[in-house]
């Protein structure tokens, strides 16, 4: 079987193979041209439309690198915050899990468990830029990564240079008919002015608990400090009644710092951290 993708996914239920294009090797990947950080035109966001569930890449269960993944029956209501990465010229033209050629200039993405295809809004938490992409691939199969974006999508989110970014991913349900087609129009890339470059970026924190009791919040804070995490604090949220005491860590200084904090939190038995901005 010809498998031009980054990882081979073994279906445990049907014992057939699916293509999984997003793996871990980014060493020789990159933008279209060496040192390029922009393109003359960027595509418009993907336009959500009703599409039949793909015959390929939809599990229901598959395995990559010894780890099992279950494909959702329905992505409605899905929302998650975490780390986004992107893939570019190294995989341009390779088949995606849906057996469509990967186009790094299109507004697409890879996800481990959403039904294929799906449409999602991805928001960069650091600068509030957002895009809508069509999920047609599987991956990324890397810890603490929730979505792999096309080059154009990453460029519009201003995350090409860093390679990764902290994001929010939310499924968008289509209200269009099955016959509708997504538009192929392009939009000119917005120029980056000096004012834009100096814009203050959002501060990002990891929330590790929300309590109705201040004593319980203080106990969680003490656990953090005992584990060597000294940047924890209690945020008293008066916007809800009764008042909630939210325990947060941060600010988070980028993805590398986030990965380190998640690893430290897991050692303390805290495995459900949630990214927030303020």
Outline the structure in words.
The N and C termini lie far apart (50 Å). This protein is an alpha+beta fold. The N terminus is likely disordered. The protein is built from four helices and 16 strands. Helix content is 13%, strand content 32%. The strands form four sheets. It has a six-stranded mixed β-barrel. The chain has a four-stranded antiparallel sheet with strand order 2-1-4-5, with no helix packed on it. Strands 14-15-13-16 form a four-stranded antiparallel sheet, covered by helices on one side. It folds into two domains: 159 residues, RlpA-like domain (Barwin-like endoglucanases); 74 residues, Sporulation related repeat (Alpha-Beta Plaits, 2-Layer Sandwich).
Summarize the structure.
With 278 residues, this protein is α+β, with helices and mostly antiparallel strands. Helices cover 13% and strands 32% of the residues.
């Amino acid at each position: 079987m010809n498998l031009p993708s980054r990882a081979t996914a073994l279906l445990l239920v049907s014992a057939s193979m699916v293509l999984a294009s997003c793996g871990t090797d980014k060493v020789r990947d990159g933008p279209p041209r060496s040192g390029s950080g922009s393109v003359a035109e960027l595509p418009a966001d993907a336009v959500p439309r009703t599409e039949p569930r793909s015959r390929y890449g939809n599990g229901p269960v598959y395995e990559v690198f010894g780890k099992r993944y279950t494909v959702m029956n329905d992505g409605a209501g899905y929302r998650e915050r975490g780390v986004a990465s992107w893939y570019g010229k190294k995989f341009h033209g390779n088949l995606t899990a849906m057996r469509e050629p990967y186009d790094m200039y299109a507004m697409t993405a890879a996800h481990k468990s959403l039904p294929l295809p799906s449409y999602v809004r991805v928001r960069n938490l650091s600068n509030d830029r957002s895009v809508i992409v069509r999920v047609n691939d599987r991956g990324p199969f890397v810890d603490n990564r929730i979505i792999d974006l096309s080059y154009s999508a990453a460029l519009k989110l201003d995350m090409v240079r860093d390679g990764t970014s902290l994001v929010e991913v939310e499924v968008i349900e289509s209200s269009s008919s099955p016959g509708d087609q997504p538009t192929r129009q392009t939009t000119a890339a917005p120029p980056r002015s000096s004012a834009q470059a100096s814009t203050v970026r959002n501060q990002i924190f990891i929330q590790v608990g929300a309590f109705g009791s201040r004593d319980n919040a203080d106990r969680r804070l003490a656990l953090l400090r005992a584990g060597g995490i000294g940047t924890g604090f209690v945020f008293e949220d008066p916007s809800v009644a009764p008042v909630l005491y939210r325990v947060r860590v941060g600010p988070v200084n980028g993805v590398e710092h986030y990965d380190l904090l998640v690893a430290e939190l897991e050692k303390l038995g805290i495995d459900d951290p949630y990214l927030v901005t303020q």
